[in-house]
Structures are given as structure tokens and as C-alpha cells.
Amino acid sequence: MINRKLLLALAVGAVTLTASACNTVEGAGEDLQSASREVEKEI
């Protein structure tokens, strides 16, 4: 029983970390796109 609970807790933690990492990478990509548009406007 303890092994299943531990495995479930680790799996939930991994999914949570993966989801938050995707959001961070997506946000960083949007920031880079915005910055490149501003540079293109100035050029």
C-alpha cells in the first residue's frame, strides 16, 4: 500500500512540475516574440 501511495504522489508531482514548466516556456516564447516585434519596428 505504501509503495502505491508513494508512486502516485511522485506521479502527481511530476505532472504538476511538467505542466508548470510548459507554461513558463510558453510565456518566455511569447516575451521573445514581443521583443523581436519591437526591434523590427525600430529598424
Can you describe this structure?
The chain has 43 residues and is mainly alpha-helical. It has 1 helix and no strands. The longest helix is centred in the middle third of the chain and has 41 residues. The radius of gyration is 19 Å and the shape is rod-shaped.
Strand-helix topology:
Elements: H1 2-42
Q: What is the beta-strand fraction?
A: under 5%
Structure class: mainly alpha
Q: Helix-strand pattern, N to C?
A: H
Q: How many helical elements?
A: 1
Largest sheet, if any? Answer: none
Mean pLDDT: 76
Euclidean distance between termini CA atoms: 63 Å
- Note poorly predicted spans: none
Please sum up the structure shown.
This protein has 43 residues and is mainly α. It contains 1 helix and no strands. The chain is rod-shaped, with a radius of gyration of 19 Å.
Protein traits:
mainly alpha; 43 residues; 1 helix
